[in-house]
Design a protein that fits this description.
Elements lengths: L6 H21 L3 H5 L18 E4 L5 E3 L2 E4 L6 H7 L4 H7 L13 E4 L2 E3 L8 E4 L4 E8 L2 E8 L2 E2 L8 E10 L3 E2 L2 H9 L7 E2 L10 E5 L5 E3 L10 E3 L3 E2 L2 H10 L5 E5 L3 E6 L2 E6 L8 H18 L5 H10 L5 E2 L4 H4 L7 E3 L19 E8 L2 H12 L7 E6 L2 E9 L2 H15 L4 E3 L6
Parallel strand pairs: 3-21, 6-17, 9-15, 14-16
Antiparallel strand pairs: 1-8, 2-5, 3-4, 6-7, 7-8, 10-13, 10-17, 11-12, 13-14, 18-19, 19-20, 22-24, 22-25, 23-24
Length: 439
């Protein structure tokens, strides 16, 4: 049983609750409008929408989608931006080196890498590229081909996702998770024992939809931890955002072929322009991979009868940002060129962004951390908010210190569960805050 925190923190919560009500009364504004105020408005020209997941592939083309810029607002996190625009954390962080993942600066202009080179593989069924952490589902409609693409989470270094040709053997809505012995042992060592099976619900890591592969114990499934998409965070399975796995589930029949591969370097063309996409620095790559991609580029240069900027090729390979970059020399003269990067207007609401419940007087809370730096405290609160299932958290100042408070929780049991999860998942020592009615 955790220690009960002193009454001062509870009084801070009540003080902030009263202050919030007072601000709303005096301003005459709704809470949502205060939280979504934008101190950095866009000019009138930004686009409202951009295609995120479904694309038509023209004959002979290998590149889909467009790059876009977005100016951040106060309270944004890159994981929330990534999810809203159909990206993984790996993609948005690689495209924006130096941007704080959890507390980026309001007004910061970030690149949305929403353009992709298709894997070098026949365009049928499902193709998963582990290097880019993206799934591509191909559909043929007569003479044209369409592709749905989604970001994925993949296996860790200790339990990697297997590669090779497979197929969907069966599908399951609201699956039960039968806990493998190795995973049960890992949790037992952490002091977080798991049951033999986890039924459907918010605690089930498979989410609501699962596609079982013919490779035993491996699945393509949803998740209750959306912030893990784009990370090496699974036990070998392929994990999708909840909204994406539903689409995939509905559109994928049993026996659909699934090919899992790793292609760190991708090249292709669109409108006669040659593009190169690299995932990871060339300094960390296998010499055979580099030799292969150079051979492909030379073959394309010869076939299309125009020159490649080899210096730009070296830069793309060295940076490894995972963004398709035009490496043809001729596009500036010909006028075809690479597609212009567009500017997007910030959405009114980010899909899937965690919502923090209002403070309640008669509820349990947990002191998750106390810090001297406001940004560090905001980062910690953002990380806690993105746990799965959600743990709501906020920052409350106290003098020159900042307290990260998780809650509200309806009862002691849910508060104690939050304390255990903070310890197991984040190595944070939470302290219970008892409501006044329990004293």
């Amino acid at each position: 049983m955790c220690r009960i925190l002193e009454k001062t923190i509870l009084s801070d919560i009540l003080r902030h609750l009263v202050l919030l009500i007072l601000i709303l009364v005096l301003s005459g504004c709704a809470p949502r409008r205060i939280l979504n105020a934008n101190p950095h408005p866009f000019p009138s020209s930004p686009a409202e929408k951009i295609e995120r997941n479904k694309f038509s592939v023209d004959k002979g083309d290998d590149v889909i989608g467009r790059l876009a810029f977005l100016r951040l607002e106060k309270g944004d996190t890159l994981p929330d931006i990534a999810r809203h625009f159909g990206l993984g954390i790996n993609q948005i962080s690689s495209a924006n080196p130096g941007a704080d993942l959890w507390v980026p600066a309001a007004g910061e202009r970030i690149l949305l890498p929403m353009s992709f080179i298709l894997p070098d593989h026949p365009r049928t069924g499902i193709v998963i590229n582990l290097a880019s952490m993206r799934l591509f589902q191909f559909k043929e409609n007569g003479k044209s081909v369409s592709v749905h693409t989604y970001p994925v989470g993949i296996g860790s270094a200790e339990r990697p996702t297997p590669r090779g040709q497979m197929h969907v053997s069966r599908k399951m809505f609201r699956p039960t998770w039968y806990v493998p012995a190795s995973i049960a042992e890992d949790h037992r060592k952490k002091g977080d024992p798991l049951p033999a099976k986890v039924p459907p619900g918010p605690d089930n890591p498979l989410g609501e939809y699962a596609l079982y592969l013919d490779e035993p114990t491996y699945l393509i499934h949803g998740t209750n931890k959306p912030a893990s998409i784009g990370l090496n965070a699974t036990n070998g399975c392929i994990r999708l955002y909840p909204e994406d796995v539903k689409k995939l589930y509905d559109e994928t029949p049993v026996d659909t072929p699934v090919n899992i591969m790793r292609q760190a370097y991708l090249t292709g063309q669109r409108n006669g322009v040659i593009y190169l996409e690299a995932h990871g620095s060339s300094g960390d790559s296998d010499a055979i991979e580099l030799k292969t991609i150079y051979a492909k580029l030379r073959a394309m240069e010869k076939k299309l009868a125009h020159r490649i900027d080899w210096k730009k090729v070296e830069n793309v390979l060295a940076e490894g940002k995972g963004i398709p970059v035009a490496v043809s020399r001729f596009q500036q003269k010909s006028g075809t060129g690479a597609e212009r990067v567009i500017e997007l207007r910030h959405p009114g609401r980010l899909y899937g962004r965690p919502e923090i419940p209002e403070l309640k007087m008669d509820a349990w809370y947990v002191l998750a951390a106390e810090m001297g730096d406001k940004t560090d405290a905001e980062r910690a609160a953002a990380i806690i908010n993105h746990q799965g299932p959600p743990i709501p958290a906020r920052v409350l100042p106290k003098g020159n210190r900042y307290r990260v408070i998780a809650g509200p929780f309806e009862n002691l049991g849910t508060a104690e569960l939050a304390v255990r999860r903070l310890k197991t998942d984040l190595e944070m020592e939470g302290i219970l805050i008892e409501p006044p009615s329990k004293r």
